[in-house]
Amino acid sequence: MLLNSRGLALILSGCIAAVVLGSLVLLPDVPNYVYWLVFFISFGTGYILINIVLEFLFFKELRSIYNMFEQIRANDLSKLEENKRYGHSSLNQIHQEIYAYAHGKQSEIEELKQLAKFRRQFLADVSHELKTPIFAAQGFVHTLLDGAIDDKNNRMKFLKKAAKNLDGLDMLVQDLLTVSHMEAGDITMQLEPVDICEEIYEIFDQMEENAHKHKVTLKTNHERSEEIKVLVDSQRIHQVLVNLITNAIKYSDEGGVVEVSVVDTGKRQNVIVKDRGIGIPTEHLNRIFERFYRVDKSRSRAIGGTGLGLSIVKHIVEAHDSEIKVVSTPGEGSTFSFELNKYKPQ
Questions:
Q1: For residues 266 and 135, is the Cβ–Cβ distance under 8 A?
Q2: Are 102 and 131 in contact (CB under 8 A)?
Q3: Residues with Cβ < 8 Å from 319, sequence gap 6 or more?
Q4: pLDDT for 245-300, tens place per residue?
Q5: Cβ contact 230:264 at 8 Å
Q6: Per-residue DSSP letters for 117-186?
Q7: Residue 241: which of 180, 313, 321, 181 has the closest Cα?
Q8: How far is 80 from 169, CA to CA, in rounded Å?
Q9: Which alpha helices (H) appear in 60-88, and where do they start and end?
């Protein structure tokens, strides 16, 4: 700014002193020293008051606004501070509006940076997850092409292993599509009354062999004959329970117990899946619902799975206006829970 408060105060105080001296000239018999005294008093007082008023009300605020524009021009929005001074109301309002605009832009920039980070991480995870089954199946097929196809003893073994890896690849792609559609809002929940007790027992029947193989017992707090109806998308809630119970079996120790409970909380039914397995360290609890996030990567890949199960669970539960919760203690087990709306016949 070419003109500051001091320069303007000098000009205005000089004008005031000149007007006062001009008024004294009209008075008769005024001594010369009075002219000097009046000049210095009027000029000094005027300069001090005008400088303070202009600096406090206008120029300080204008400099602050100018500095904000400089920071915005330089894309340095992180150091912007909200106005806490008492300037002129119009300038103060302009300052606040500029700060609100810049703060909003800073939030957008941070969000875009975070999204870019997530995108890079997601691409890296997808590439890694796809690479494993593709390379494995490719290796078995090329081995067969290189002559192993004539070996009757190993031919079927290689074909089965290649098929297993391709099945895993297909499962991964299907889970990716499911997560993608859910995040885009392309999947609508088809709500219908479902007997949650019957659903749990059907899943138990489906997983009986898997549980027996891991020497894990499946339990529930209700009899099969009991009827507890909830308003849900049957296929999606089935997927949620299958994922949670499968994980509970996978990460349980031999001789462990996986218990699925349904607790009435009033307007809703609380579904709880509890195991007594290895548990999840506290530092991982906030991230286990992220795509491809694995607490123990070596054990997770040895056990199997796409790394998308809990992410799908989270999206389905949230689509039912609920929230998936987890409590876990390493060495003691984990408890996952979510609430579902009761079915009320019309």
A1: no
A2: no
A3: 182, 187, 189, 233, 236
A4: 998 998 888 888 999 999 999 889 999 999 988 888 888 888 888 877 766 654 44
A5: no
A6: HHHHHHHHHHHHHHHHHHHHHHHHHHHHHTTGGG-HHHHHHHHHHHHHHHHHHHHHHHHHHHHHHHHHT-
A7: 313
A8: 49
A9: 60-73
Q: Residue written as tokens 């409590």?
A: 327
3-state helix, strand, coil in the chain (%, to 5): 60, 15, 25
249 contacts 319 by C-beta, under 8 angstroms:
no
Read off the pLDDT of residues 15-58 as tens digits, 9 standing for 90 and up. 888 888 777 777 777 777 777 887 888 888 887 887 777 776 66
Strand partners, 220: 260
Q: Which two tokens stand for residue 216?
A: 């894990």
d(CA 36, CA 16): 14
Check: pTM over 0.85? Answer yes or no.
no
Pairwise CA distance, residues 9 & 38, whole Å: 18
Contacts of 316 (CB under 8 A, 6+ apart): 182, 233, 236, 237, 239, 240
CA angle (212 as vertex; 209, 217 as ends), nearest 5: 120
Residue 273 · residue 250 · CB < 8 Å: no
Q: Give the closest residue to 318 by CA, choosing from 203, 249, 232.
A: 232
Q: How far is CA 121 from CA 9, 223, 293, in A?
A: 60, 45, 11
The DSSP-derived string for 18-57 is HHHHHHHHTSSS--HHHHHHHHHHHHHHHHHHHHHHHIII
298 near 281, Cβ under 8 Å? Answer: no
CA distance 272 to 285: 17
Cβ–Cβ contacts within 10 Å for residue 117, how many?
10
Q: What does the DSSP 8-state code read for residue 343? A: P
